[in-house]
């Protein structure tokens, strides 16, 4: 019995990407992850409402949390990238452009595992996912599975 493509894609992301996020100190549940430190790192997987694609939204916030323009305070432990204004988020996608065609596509001939691997690779390239700061040996923070990644979270642009 075949499952629907989105379920297969979510399963591949949960198999390949989520364990790496956990190793890097992120908490939360799919599709929202956060690593509470200075600054708080936020990652959200957003799926195309028409199906067949997703984008990864990245953001940073203060460890004190975030207060919306209408006054609601959201603690850092509950914050998601979607809580921040779109101007405060950055979209990670495999191609340039503004339409959903530039998103990670799983409706083409590529298997979900290949798309998830591409997403993980781009997370490694674009967003340094360091081990938690409180390493028992006090050693340097390491990039998520890739010692050659550049430092620091992406700037929001």
Description:
- With 157 residues, the protein is an alpha+beta fold.
- The chain has one domain.
- It contains three helices and eight strands.
- It has helices at residues 5-16, 18-23, 112-126; strands spanning 27-29, 32-35, 40-47, 53-61, 66-67, 73-74, 89-92, 104-105.
- Strands 1, 2, 3, 4, 7 and 8 form a six-stranded antiparallel β-sheet that branches.
- Helix 1 (5-16) crosses helix 3.
- The N and C termini lie far apart (43 Å).
- The model is unreliable at 130-157 (pLDDT under 50).
In short:
By secondary structure, the chain is α+β, with helices and mostly antiparallel strands. 21% of the residues lie in helices and 22% in strands.
Q: What overall geometry do the principal axes of the alpha carbons give?
A: globular
Largest sheet: 6 strands, antiparallel
Query: What count of helical segments does DSSP give?
Result: 3
Structure summary, number of beta strands: 8
Order of helices and strands: HHEEEEEEEEH
By secondary-structure content and strand pairing, the structural class works out as alpha+beta
Name the helicity range.
10-25%
- Beta-strand content bin: 15-25%
Rg, Cα atoms, Å? 16 Å
* The number of domains: 1
Contiguous low-pLDDT stretches (5 residues minimum) are 130-157
> What is the typical, i.e. mean, pLDDT?
81
Q: How many angstroms does the end-to-end distance come to?
A: 43 Å
């Amino acid at each position: 019995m075949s499952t629907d493509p989105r379920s297969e894609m979510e399963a591949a992301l949960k198999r390949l990407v989520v364990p790496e996020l956990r190793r890097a100190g992120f908490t939360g549940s799919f599709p929202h992850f956060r690593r509470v430190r200075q600054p708080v790192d936020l990652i959200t997987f957003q799926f195309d409402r028409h199906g067949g694609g997703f984008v990864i939204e990245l953001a940073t916030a203060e460890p004190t949390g975030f207060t919306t323009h209408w006054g609601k305070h959201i603690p850092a432990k509950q914050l998601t990238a979607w809580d921040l204004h779109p101007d405060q988020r950055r979209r990670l996608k495999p191609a340039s452009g503004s339409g959903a065609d530039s998103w990670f596509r799983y409706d083409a001939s590529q298997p979900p595992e290949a798309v998830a691997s591409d997403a993980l690779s781009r997370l490694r390239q674009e967003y340094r996912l360091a081990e938690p700061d409180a390493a028992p040996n006090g050693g340097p923070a390491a990039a998520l599975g890739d010692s050659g990644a550049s430092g620091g979270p992406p700037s929001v642009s």
